[in-house]
Amino acid sequence: MTEAAVPLPEVPLSLRKRVEHVDTDASGVVHFSRYASLLETAGLEELERRGAGLDALTAQGLDLRVRELRVSYRAAARFQDWLVMVPSVDHVGPASLKLGVKLYRDGPEPLLLAFGSLDFAVVTRENGVPACLPPSLSSALKLAP
Question: What is the distance between the alpha carbons of residues 77 and 29, in angstroms, rounded to a whole number?
Fold first, then answer.
């Protein structure tokens, strides 16, 4: 294995994606802007898996607003690569949460391509003012995967 290669955990099919032509620039490399969407997809899937997804938040009259998006690039993803997204819940506060995502190229020697985080504020759906996470959702997010 190369320095950046790691054994990948098993992930649901929804966290695997094949790079499509629409994701790439003229040279066949994934455009930098596509990574934000991949991070969001993986992060929201992790919330869903933990029982605190958008439907659960909506049922409590809550929503999420992105406060900060960070992406660090290590290597290029290319047309028809298989990508594996590995999300994590990195922080749960009273009215916020931070999701991390690592993005790998799948293969015999998986390679870390990019990693990043999404920092969310919890707000009311009605008027967008900050709100606390209910204990049930906060507990679900804090449980180990």
Answer: 6
Q: What percent helix, strand, coil does the chain show, rounded to 5? A: 25, 40, 35
Displacement of CA 85 from its chain's centroid (Å): 7
Token pair of 113 as six digits:
């391509």
Mind listing the pLDDT tens digit for each residue in 4-61? Answer: 555 777 777 779 999 999 999 999 999 999 999 999 999 999 999 999 999 999 999 9
Residue 28's nearest CA partner among 78, 77, 75, 73 is 78
Grouping H, G, I as helix, E, B as strand and the rest as coil, residue 18 is strand
Contact 106, 82 (CB under 8 A): yes
